[in-house]
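Appendix B. Chain record.
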Amino acid sequence: MKLYHSSYISVGRPDTEHSRDFLDFGRGFYLTSMEDQAVRYAQRFLRRNKEAWINTYELEFDPAEWKILEFDAYDKIWLDFVSKCRAGKDDTDFDMVVGGIANDKVIQTLDRYFEGELSENETLGLLKYEKPNNQYCIRSQMMLNDCLKHIESRKL
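Structure tokens predicted for this chain:
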């Protein structure tokens, strides 16, 4: 499957070491299967007067060999997992997590939930109308090394 990663540099050899903490699915190398989503995300680098790159990869793996968590919707399970990851309390050992991105509208809803302004049910009610984008977070360096092949990097 073809996946994309936006950055301010060409990323020929991805790693988990350069990931930030407290992201949706924890530390890892984040990708999307939606090229237009990667291009939109790369625009933030251009707005900061940096270079913008779209890095393209091929992901090939046997699901039986890896520990994978996949979310099909913005639901309670997704909300609980993202909440733990963003709070730095994730203790799972998944090699890869796949699911919807907490985009700007989702982040605003999550912030209101974390502050206690919204109940769990209110939060889930607001999130169910969001069209999920997608993200693949490869959290193990071994899976990156074994399953992700760099195809090209192109500057926008």
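Further analysis of this model is presented in Appendix C.
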